[in-house]
Design brief:
There is one protein chain. By secondary structure, the chain is α+β, with helices and mostly antiparallel strands. The protein has one domain. It contains 1 helix and 2 strands. Strands 1-2 form a two-stranded antiparallel ribbon. A hairpin with a 2-residue loop joins strand 1 and strand 2. The chain starts with a helix and ends in a 12-residue tail after the last strand.
Length: 44
């Protein structure tokens, strides 16, 4: 899977898709974001 579903289907941008888990009647996406893009990041 690519980030295409996250972006086009859910409107989530600037994140990297890691994995998908299914269970308990739902779907869980694990995503990450570059440290430089984090809100309030000082870049350290």
């Amino acid at each position: 899977m690519s980030t295409s579903l996250l972006y086009h289907g859910l409107g989530i941008r600037d994140y990297k898709y890691m994995k998908t888990d299914f269970g308990k009647g739902g779907i869980q996406f694990t995503i990450t974001q570059e440290r430089e893009r984090l809100c309030g990041s000082s870049g350290n």
